[in-house]
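Quarterly update, task 2.4: pyridoxal-5'-phosphate-bound model.
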Amino acid sequence: MTLVDTSRSEEMLAHRQALLPRGVTGAGRWEDPYPIVFTRARGQFIEDVDGTEYLDYHGGYGTALLGYSHPGVDGAVARAMADGQTFVGCAQVHEAILAERLVDLLPEADRIAFCGGGGSDPLYHAVRVARAATGRRKIVKVEGGYQGWHSDFGASTVPPAADISPTHTPPTVPNSTGVLPEVTEAILAVTANDIASLEERFAAEGDEIAAVFVEPALYSSGVIPVDHDYLRAARDLCDRHGAVLVFDEIICGFRSRIGGAAVPSGVVPDLAAYGKAIANGHVFALLAGKAELMDLLAPNGGVFFSGTFNGGPIGVAAATAVLDELESTDAMARAVRACERLAVGINAAICARGLNAVVQHHGSAWNLYFHTRKVRDVRDLAASLAHDTEALNLAFRHHLRDQAIFMQRRVGTLRGFVSAAHTDADIDRTIDVVEAFLDQHEETLKA
Ligand SMILES: Cc1ncc(COP(=O)(O)O)c(C=O)c1O
């Protein structure tokens, strides 16, 4: 039985498709047979054009840690606007105050470079800083990791469909047309959680590697925890070969603790990029790092650094309010606990039925994988997809949607974000809905 009517979203499709690429604004926003069109979101709920309030696990791609339209954060933004703070493009009072707090919180941070757009911005600056610092071309990235939409990282975001056997040296597979081959050739892919992969890359091309980019928890491929030893090995190899270690904390940072997801490992990168949850739905991102590298940015150094909206007061007000909230309440702990409750509940249901599936979770993010019991790298994920799993993933999202629970489509994964607004009752309802799906698909998942 379906609780929802999505007919207005369906009716809007033709009009939207005439105006927007396939009717959406970014590849990930498409869903078969048509995307649900939303109007507003509050707390743990998001409402569509038909008036249905969905319990939400999309979390604005991980931004809505405190819940949507958080009164503390949006109130701070509204006050900044009322105070005439919608000017951009000049030095402003609050950026240095926020930078001082971040320098205290983030282990790698001597300096902060605020960026004006999404998380892709600081990562792009990080590539240039690393190349300028080392005089080298190549960058190492983890296969299945996503470091933003631009060309310097436009490869190996998913494994090659043709060959998914284990390897220490995955091929560089472009994820876009229109990228210059010499840009793609400068990208070296490594396997997640595989120290030998890092070692082989450095043994072969160590004197050409400018930087290694690692997500300290690999949310780009669902939720794959990254071993602390892997982070340590990356640190050690970068030190020995004179390369820059960059942590991409855009999606995992501030989802498990204040500061980076890497903090428990004790590994300190040279540079780290943050975004998303740090401003709870407002546009904001930053690069943090050691003084000798950050001082290469203009106007100190020769690495061009600009952006109309960099350090704009509205984004700074939002991030400041998020830090206030995280430091003065148990919001982070609540989100993490709720996520744990969900993962434990679904895994118990999987175990009770003896199914081949698993929820992996980290911080306040979770991913349900079908046809596998463990995913350590993107090749494990690819192997799990060789069972018509994408059709099952789509059926799962539709099943949830019919019960007014929303997850955004992602290629190959079912990743969800829990916010501090999710209650135990929300989580328990979700577990019940998931159990009904597992019952329906028990035969398929026993295989
Ligand atoms: C790990 C990671 N890095 C970078 C980015 C790029 O951020 P944005 O899409 O805000 O530019 C994303 C976006 O999902 C991400 O997940």
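Highlight for this quarter: Residues 7-69+330-446 form a domain with the Aspartate Aminotransferase, domain 1 fold (CATH 3.90.1150.10).
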